Amino acid sequence: MSQADERAPSAPSTVLLLARSAITAPPLKEMERLRGALATRHGVEEALFAFSEQGSPSLRHALDKLIAAGCGRLVILPMLIPAEPNFQAWLTRTLTRWRSRDERPWPTVEVAALLPNEASLVSLLDAALAAGRTELSLGAAKASPEGSLVPAQKRRVLVCMGGPCNVAGAEVIWGHFRNEQDRLSLRTAGDGCMSAKTSCLGPCNLAPVVQVWPEGTYYGGVDEAAVDRIIAEHILGGRPVEEQAYEPTGKKQFLRMCEV
């Protein structure tokens, strides 16, 4: 580590706690608690949190508000355990894509060390083991008395989470789709739509890849604008978005750079 890396920040920073997802009250309250604790630290001008996948505020929404407010220096503190080696790669590609389409001045963006790379994480594990424990009551397995409905939704959206798609920013694409699915009530709108992450869908060089059923349509190079069109035109309108779709031709295909 260089001497420059070891020095304290020369100017106050806005710090963004970045977690994967949270859709229920308890984890949101915990994120708010951590945000409040971080806000009191020396050198922290403002602290906030966001989610790269499902949850509000999304990374895109939080970043948009900071840019609008004239944030000059942003430090992203990843709360990703276990850490993914390609985290910085997909974050860089995603932010580069967003910045290329935004004419406003952007802050300087820095990323703090991933937690598992810090020796202090071991002491946190030791503390957890030493803390009070709750013994689980393991009785006989019981069937649910309520039963469960088989989903009637006719459409399925698969978002690839294979290696190349993950590096290309599939995590934020998944988050954007899930947030829009909730906002637009896609489970009950039209034919109804369910969604899921999946392992490799096959056409890795077309990353990020999304597939929509029952047609089985492959979409490549998907970004937020493409997701919005897929929802409006395909999921709700029943018409595949041809400009973003890739048919199985039996030959290798390359990513088309098209405006969506």
Automatic annotation (TrEMBL):
Q: Does the keyword Metal-binding apply?
A: yes
InterPro entries given for it?
A: CbiX-like, Thioredoxin-like_sf
Q: What is this protein called?
A: NAD(P)H-dependent oxidoreductase subunit E
- Pfam family of the protein (one): CbiX
Q: Does the keyword Nucleotide-binding apply?
A: no
Which species is the source of this protein? Bosea vestrisii
Q: Record's superkingdom?
A: Bacteria
Name the UniProt key words of this record, in alphabetical order. Answer: Lyase, Metal-binding
